[in-house]
Amino acid sequence: MLTLQVIRRELQGEVVLLTLAHAQGIALPAFSAGAHIDLHLAKDLIRPYSLCGDPQDRHHYQLGILKESDSKGGSVAVHALKEGDSVTVSEPRNLFALDEHAPHSLLIGGGIGITPMLAMAAELHAAGRSFSLHYCARSRAQAAFVSRLEASAYAPHLHFSDEQRLNLTAVLSDVPPDTHVYVCGPSRLMEAVNAQALAQGFAPGQIHQECFSAEVETKGEAFEVIAAASGIAVTVLENQTIVEALAQAGLKVNVSCKQGICGSCLTDVIEGEPDHRDHYLTDEEKADGDQILLCCSRAKCGRLVIDL
Fold first, then answer.
1. Less Cβ around it within 10 Å: N or C end of the chain?
2. What residues contact 209, with CB distance under 8 A and at least 6 apart?
3. The domain 105-210 is classified under which CATH number: 3.40.50.80, 3.90.220.20, 3.30.43.10, 1.10.10.10?
4. If you ran DSSP here, which 8-state letter would residue 245 be given?
5. Which regions of the chain carry the CATH code 2.40.30.10?
6. CA angle 47, 50, 54 (to 5 degrees)
7. pLDDT tens-digit series, residues 51-65
């Protein structure tokens, strides 16, 4: 864990841009584009946010966080931070990394989903690698990072719903062969990009996405979970998650998003068949059945043995 200080706070519409640094100016752990850090905002209030700064900058972490209208506490707590405040953060983790062998990278960010794309563009530009960036927002007035993008050296494409909307068919056609696509933003945008890319011949392995929020149904039939390494057995009730049931038995699981999108509670399955409810594992990984996200997924059988 790191204790950092908010050295700059800037509000752009509904997005707060925070710059974090060590109070003594010590270099921060390195990160690669697509990485995020967990902010520990209060007891049991931990939220992951993408780093949107330049990965070459070892003295600052930058975050852009939208104030959600239906916030469960995370974005409200972040927007309450002031310059000079201290905040505990995790070291960077990357679950959305660039493919180093891609001949061209197509970056598509919608709304606050632009944040990981900013770091990706900085990394790709610094390395002299081929890429293009498209940013979609409802309007120029509501969009964050516009001045930063317009001042950049890599000529991003800006799409505003009240000016010129994104034409996915054209954007996905105007790229070299074997291009890798990266998309982050509202679910509707990510679903549209995924469907259109597959329809235009992109292989599933060439399409990468990261969710910021997701609707997930966690209820279901009761079942037993055995944490093999801890020697704990619990019954997960119909309206409980595995995380909640284990916590009642004294076994605390590291969780962050609680929506099955960040992967922090990913655990190996030793025995039994998971009922995957997450948005993190790929279809192939879900079919393998040897991993589970404990914050939201359940079991298709009466007994699940996990390596915990």
1. N
2. 182, 183, 184, 190, 193, 194
3. 3.40.50.80
4. H
5. 2-94
6. 145
7. 999 999 999 999 999
